[in-house]
Specification:
The protein has 116 residues and is of the alpha+beta class. It contains two helices and five strands, in the order αβββαββ. The protein is elongated and about 50 Å long. The mean pLDDT is 94.
């Protein structure tokens, strides 16, 4: 499953920041939420779009984490199964009154599935 492969890859790159696939009830102060938005097949190559939410306790820390996540995911082509990794867009969502700082990123991947 591409979701698990990308989660494991990203978790290794940004350790010790948790990379989650579900919104936790009691979230840590700093984490990355990875959600599969869409998937398909293009010329017999699998494609997947992910929404990536980056959260931290300050706007500065969130921006730093966002940059680390972007760098790691753009470098995912270093993995044998990823043929393309592109940033489709990003937006800031800040609620300074409640100390909620986050960025939403959209990443597109083309990849090969492992033979089962």
């Amino acid at each position: 499953m591409i979701e698990v492969a990308i989660r494991d890859y990203l978790a290794q790159k940004i350790d010790p920041i948790p990379v989650l696939m579900e919104q936790p009830k009691n979230p840590p102060k700093e984490y990355v939420l990875l959600r599969l938005a869409d998937s398909g097949l293009v010329n017999k190559v699998d494609a997947a779009t992910f929404f990536v939410t980056v959260r931290s306790s300050t706007l500065y820390k969130t921006a730093q984490l966002r940059d680390s996540v972007k760098d790691a995911l753009l470098d995912a082509i270093s993995e044998d199964y990823i043929t393309s990794s592109t940033l489709g867009g990003e937006s800031a969502q800040t609620d300074s009154a409640n100390n909620v700082y986050q960025y939403e990123l959209t990443f597109n991947f083309y990849y090969y599935r492992e033979e089962t």
